[in-house]
Amino acid sequence: MAAARLLAAALGAALGLFAAAGKMKIVEEPNTFGLNNPFLPQTNRLQPKVSPSAVSGPAHLFRLAGKCFSFVESTYKYEFCPFHNVTQHEQTFRWNAYSGILGIWHEWEIENNTFVGMWMREGDSCETKSRQTKVHLVCGKSNKLAYVSEPSTCVYSLTFETPLVCHPHSLLVYPTLTEALQRKWDEAEQLLYDELITDQGYKKIMKEIFEEAGLLKATEEKEVENKKISLEFETVEKCNKEYKQLSKELKKLQDLLSQHGIQYKGISAENTSVEHRSQKLATAVTT
User: Fold this and answer.
1) What are the sequence ranges of the domains in the chain?
2) Which of 17, 43, 68, 260 is found 20 to 30 A from 82 (Cα to Cα)?
3) What percentage of the chain exceeds 90 in pLDDT?
């Protein structure tokens, strides 16, 4: 009997402990993965506005895709997932701790035949615009997110160190292109050297090459808007000034074509003077 009473007492104590444990409040660790945590329910994940662009650029950087690197500063944890996104998470136990998307992989920034940064755009809304982040790739002994700043409101700057960019040619654009696009680039260089195209024409060709390669995203709306603005003149004097400048460029190109024995068939010289066209424009404006 004594043994039975002892067993019952021990069982009762154990049940009491389980009951007490059931009443304990479980404090969960703040969300440090957000959009990148496949184990979170879909409703609890950060919701991106757009899908990431395709992986592009130097092939030796492709191995970074699917990996994430974090950096903690003060009470915030930043997470950079190359070719995917950048997120920010407040490391506090507040019930409404902030977690947000600072940008989705969008395109490369290219200068002087070199990849100079990765742009993450279309992040969470910030007043009238979306948050965006530029990631700078610098040489380092290991892959790590080394520095985060916010140079302007809702525009972030990340520095990512990696041994993958230590070679002086590791971020050159030309080797990443197909043979067809390399030929197109070579032709543009030759045309510029022969002065058969202007710097503006050269830059336009290069932009088309980078867009075709998937390194830049085409911005059709911006191009249409720029064309619309370029065709609008506030005054007849401004229009006349622009026309004179274009006439000089046209004359220069005609002379170059003549030097290379290329025939040029343009509009007739009749009624093409600046004065005549300005007079017609002034008449049209007054009427």
Assistant:
1) 59-162, 177-213
2) 43
3) 49
